[in-house]
Write a structure and sequence with these properties.
Strand content: under 5%
Number of helices: 2
Low-confidence stretches: none
Radius of gyration: 24 Å
Structural class: mainly alpha
Mean pLDDT: 83
Distance between the termini: 65 Å
Largest sheet: none
Order of helices and strands: HH
Length: 103
């Protein structure tokens, strides 16, 4: 059952960011488990000598550990996420002139 959120989801809300980051981490863990178990199962089933499976698993595990350290130790959820200022100068389309066109 998916978690329920009682308010409108907004990345500016620290509680929502924390929940969203942890759900993303849980998805990362699930993908790691499913992919690696599939690769190791195929390797064992075919008696293959795939040396890359060890490196793939260890590399992905290192990335997963780094993700966990960031989510559970480094991430700061005390303040809202910074937003861009409204005075940003980006692309602005030309305004249409209101002059009448001669035919």
């Amino acid at each position: 059952m998916p978690p329920r959120w009682s308010r409108i989801p907004d990345r500016k809300d620290p509680d929502f960011r924390k929940l969203d980051d942890r759900m993303t981490f849980a998805t990362h863990v699930a993908l790691f488990g499913a992919s690696n178990s599939g690769v190791w199962f195929a390797r064992t089933l075919q008696h293959a000598d795939w040396s890359w499976t060890t490196w793939m698993t260890l590399g992905w595990l290192a990335v997963l550990a780094t993700h966990a350290v960031y989510i559970f130790a480094i991430a700061d959820y005390s303040e809202p996420a910074p937003t861009t200022s409204s005075s940003a100068t980006g692309f602005k389309p030309k305004e249409k002139s209101t002059k009448s066109v001669k035919r």
